[in-house]
Specification:
The protein has about 140 residues and is α+β, with helices and mostly antiparallel strands. Helix content is about 30%, strand content about 25%. The protein is built from 5 helices and 8 strands; from the N terminus they run βαβααβαβββββα. Strands 1-7-8 form a 3-stranded antiparallel sheet, with helices on one face. Strand 7 and strand 8 form a beta hairpin. It is elongated and about 75 Å long. The two termini are about 20 Å apart.
């Protein structure tokens, strides 16, 4: 039997009649954004490079408004800025956002085969999940 990682989607389409037990940690309530310094990320520790066309709005922004310490090299109409270590990466860069868990308990959610999903406490959640697994095993054994 293969491994199944928590948080991954199951490869088969959901059964609308299935009972579902879900452990969730939504980003909006269970994580907070932190700085590059707090995350000790590679860009902060070692610096980073950005290459843009010479004279472009990005070029002018980096030179005159970014407040970053850098060295530069111009080749064939492109300028590469070598941003020195100890500086935050570009604010809002979608591929460079650091988060830290807030330490909140995960949400334990149960959606019965018929009815609305609801949050549960740990003991109630595990009892419900075990009962559901027991019922499924009994059905499998019966064929």
């Amino acid at each position: 039997m293969g491994r199944f990682n928590i948080g991954t989607r199951h490869p088969y389409p959901p059964n609308p009649n299935a009972e579902i037990h879900k452990i969730a940690q939504p980003a909006a309530t269970h994580f907070t954004r932190i700085t590059c310094r707090e995350a000790e990320c590679r860009a902060f520790r070692f610096g980073f490079n950005t290459t843009v066309p010479v004279g472009s709005p990005q070029d002018l922004y980096i030179r005159h408004h970014s407040g970053k310490a850098f060295k530069e090299e111009v080749v064939a109409g492109m300028v590469t800025f070598f941003i020195q270590p100890g500086q935050e990466f570009w604010d809002g860069a979608p591929d460079h956002q650091h988060k830290r868990r807030l330490g909140r308990d995960p949400l334990l959610i149960h959606r019965p085969a018929r009815g609305d999903a609801r949050r549960m406490e740990v003991n109630e959640f595990t009892d419900s999940m075990n009962e559901n697994a027991h019922q499924l095993n009994q059905r499998r054994q019966r064929g």
